[in-house]
């Protein structure tokens, strides 16, 4: 059975949990990093799985893999779900483009304001940094809004793909963070559209930001 290592409150762990639901893949979730002293990420028992001391990690019948977006691609490919991760090079590249945009552009923008305003983490109390993060986050959400205006459905077109798992969770985090949200009608409609998906309700719009 597939083992998913990582606390289920982590946005990156929830990507893998949601995809496993879409795949109808049985799994066990081991909540490493949840605060329990026996499940700290810097323990030798975990470092053997991921030397970066981060979640998620999967163990798929002895094959260990880390990095959430790599895990999404691997699971969809090995379970032969071309609807979620197309085989045609151009269609696959479009999905990869938006998954990578989520990781390299969108995620770094929300880190500071999210940790300051939701997690209230020590050291994240600089008002200027919060404002700068919110401004950048809003700018990127406008990019997403333009894309969704074009597709009128999902991130890459009229079909749900891996890109919607990665970006859908980020959209939930956007709405769950107490900041001023510019009116982005296409993003709002997308959020409601995703909410008809059982996996999103369970692992995305479930009260966890």
UniProtKB/TrEMBL annotation:
Annotated Pfam families: GST_C_2, GST_N_2
An example molecular function term from Gene Ontology annotations: transferase activity
GST C-terminal domain location: 88-209
Family matches, as InterPro entries: Glutathione-S-Trfase_C-like, Glutathione-S-Trfase_C_sf, Glutathione_S-Trfase, Glutathione_S-Trfase_N, Thioredoxin-like_sf
Keyword presence, Iron: no
Residue ranges of every copy of the GST N-terminal domain listed in the record: 1-83
Keywords for this protein: Transferase
Protein name, entry field: Glutathione S-transferase
Lineage: Bacteria, Pseudomonadati, Pseudomonadota, Betaproteobacteria, Burkholderiales
């Amino acid at each position: 059975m597939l083992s998913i290592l990582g606390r289920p409150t982590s946005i990156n762990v929830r990507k893998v949990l949601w995809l496993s639901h879409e795949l109808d893949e049985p799994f066990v979730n081991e909540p490493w990093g949840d605060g329990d002293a026996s499940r700290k990420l810097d323990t030798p028992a975990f470092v053997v799985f991921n030397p970066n001391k981060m979640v998620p990690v999967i163990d798929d019948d002895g094959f260990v893999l880390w990095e959430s977006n790599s895990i999404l691609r691997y699971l969809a490919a090995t379970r032969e779900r071309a609807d979620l991760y197309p085989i045609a090079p151009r269609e696959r590249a479009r999905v990869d483009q938006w998954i990578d945009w989520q990781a390299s552009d969108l995620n770094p923008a929300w880190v500071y304001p999210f940790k300051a305003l939701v997690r209230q983490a020590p050291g994240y109390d600089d008002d200027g940094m919060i404002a700068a993060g919110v401004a950048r986050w809003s700018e990127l959400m406008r990019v997403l809004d333009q894309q969704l205006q074009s597709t009128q459905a999902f991130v890459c077109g009229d079909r749900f793909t891996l890109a919607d798992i990665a970006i859908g969770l980020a959209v939930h985090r956007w709405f769950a963070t107490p900041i001023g949200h510019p009116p982005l009608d296409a993003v709002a409609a997308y959020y409601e559209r995703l909410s008809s998906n059982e996996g999103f309700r369970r692992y995305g719009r479930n009260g966890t930001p």
